Every structure is written in structure tokens, then in C-alpha cells.
């Protein structure tokens, strides 16, 4: 199916499917192994202990790479469209790309430094990943509106902005509730101390994560009409 997509639409499609699989597979393995409770664990909790830690680390690192490639193609696409329309400054487009790449770096840190092994580094990576991700999709939503009606429909722009707003709203309580948790653990059970904070923070975390996935899903149509060409030049003396 991915090979049949025109242009480079297969890139965001692969990112969306791979990232969804990474979250779901790690969650299923962790629950079946009895390492986490089925009811809304943190995403990182599902990739802390083996064997799911290996799956989680590998797949999230690939997701970070795919996200970086998707963001770079999106940058090139906007630059190409901007040659005729001039709807956004090139510096703004570059800044948005840099913010997105920061988020990808945060994802790599989350995947590499596990929650219980190096919690401080893991938490910094998660904050960078989610914070930069929310800023990136918000900026992309604004750029999408600026490119209307020639390069985007208002319907797609409304969807992107709605996802951005929901992600921003969920990001704030995610941080607030997480900061109130006084212990680092993965095997949470209802009724224990700080469980409510953990539960609310985890719901917000999953909301933001899948917000990113649904946002990149909207890139597929834009990427269908864009192709990358590699040119080689032979210089003769």
C-alpha cells in the first residue's frame, strides 16, 4: 500500500503506522508480562523492562528518524511553494524545522535512557519531545492557514489547528500532574498515593502523543504531489 502512494506520501504514512505500532506493541507486551497495569500507564512505563524495553527503544528511535525525515520534507515542500506564493518567511520555516528536530532528539533520548535507569535524563528528553512537538504542530497549523487557499483547504487547516489546540491543552496538565508525583515507579495500582496524579498525567500524555500521530496523518495528501529528485552532475576538465 505504501509503495502505491504517489510522491513522498509514503513517508508520513510510514511514520504514522510505525509510531502507532511502537506504542501498541510495547503496551501489549508490558501488560501481558505483568509489568504495568492495563489502565492507562505512562507511555515510557511500557518500555522500561525487558523484553518490551528493547522493542520500545528500537521502534521509537526509528520513529524519531522518520519524524525528522518527514519534517525536513515538509520544510522543502513549504520552501518550494513559497517560491511563487510568498506566504511565509523562509526564516520562520527554518525555525519551525529546528523546533521539530529538537522534538525528534528528545524522542531519541526517551528511547535510549530508560525511565528507571536514568530518570532525570529521561524526563528531560520527554519534556523536550512533547514541548517541542506541541510548538511544532502549532506553528505548522499557522503556516497552513497562511498557505490557504492555494496550497491547503480550510478544512484541513481547521483539523490541524484543532489537533494543535487539544495537544496544547493536554500538555499543560500533563506537566502539572506529573510534577506532583513524589515517586518514580511503573507498577501503579488504584488507591495508592499519587495514583490520581499519575492517571490524569498519563491520559494527557497519550492524548498528546496520538495528537502528533493524527497531525502527521494530515501531511499525506500534501506529500502526494511532491517528489524528491536526486540530480548528478558530471564536470569535465
UniProtKB/TrEMBL annotation:
Residues 8-225 form the CWH43-like N-terminal domain. Keywords: Membrane, Transmembrane, Transmembrane helix. One of its GO terms (cellular component) is endomembrane system. It comes from the Eukaryota. The chain crosses the membrane at residues 7-33, 53-73, 94-112, 124-143, 155-177, 197-220. GO terms for biological process: regulation of autophagy. InterPro entries: CWH43_N (IPR019402), DRAM/TMEM150_Autophagy_Mod (IPR050911). It is a multi-pass membrane protein. It is found in: Endomembrane system. Belongs to the DRAM/TMEM150 family. PANTHER family: DNA DAMAGE-REGULATED AUTOPHAGY MODULATOR PROTEIN 1, FASTING-INDUCIBLE INTEGRAL MEMBRANE PROTEIN TM6P1-RELATED. This is DRAM1 protein. It comes from Chaetorhynchus papuensis (pygmy drongo). The gene is Dram1.
